[in-house]
Design brief:
It is built from six helices and five strands. The protein is α+β, with helices and mostly antiparallel strands.
Length: 172
């Protein structure tokens, strides 16, 4: 009996992701995977659609094409990834990877507010303990919006010194 080889082609990115990602975040993720290898898992439904870690799948082919290690689980037991190339958590590489994982998550977050609003409207119980009314109010009245040339009048354009990304700030 031959063991079936796992292949990334059996998996697909999330169809409707609440995080639209940012080009800067995906670039940081790509660079991290190329330099350090994998530091986080992807979670897929039984049908192969990734619902957590989808950005990794979007980045994977360019970064490091490899056959995945697939762990089947019902979610009742934790899964721990043990990096054999890192001896201690105090190792500078481990410290750097911990910082990278958190920074990439922060930089790559770009809420799809249309999807969040749709989910909130249809199934309030899905968002009830994740977002409160104050969160939704902040989403709706945020001073910073994605820069759009068509709204150039009456706004101040702010450019990120790191990546050059432009944002429009409402003039008050």
């Amino acid at each position: 009996m031959t063991k079936k080889k796992n292949s990334l082609s059996k998996f697909r990115k999330q169809t409707r992701n609440a995080n639209k990602h940012t080009s800067r975040g995906l670039d940081l993720l790509d660079k991290s995977i190329r330099k350090n290898g994998w530091i986080g898992a992807m979670t897929a439904a039984n049908d192969g659609e990734i619902f957590d870690g989808s950005a990794r799948l979007e980045t994977v082919e360019a970064a490091m094409p490899a056959d995945p290690i697939v762990v089947e689980t019902d979610g009742k037991r934790p899964i721990i990834i043990k990096r054999t190339d890192i001896k201690k958590a105090s190792d500078p590489k481990a410290v750097r990877l911990a910082l990278e994982a958190n920074r990439i998550a922060e930089v790559d977050l770009n809420w799809d507010m249309d999807l969040i609003a749709e989910i909130r409207e249809r199934k309030k119980e899905l968002t009830a303990d994740l977002f409160d009314e104050k969160d939704f109010a902040e989403f709706e009245i945020s001073d910073f919006k994605e820069y759009d040339e068509s709204i150039a009048d009456g706004v101040e354009v702010c450019e990120c010194p790191d990546c050059g990304h432009k944002h429009a700030k409402k003039n008050k």
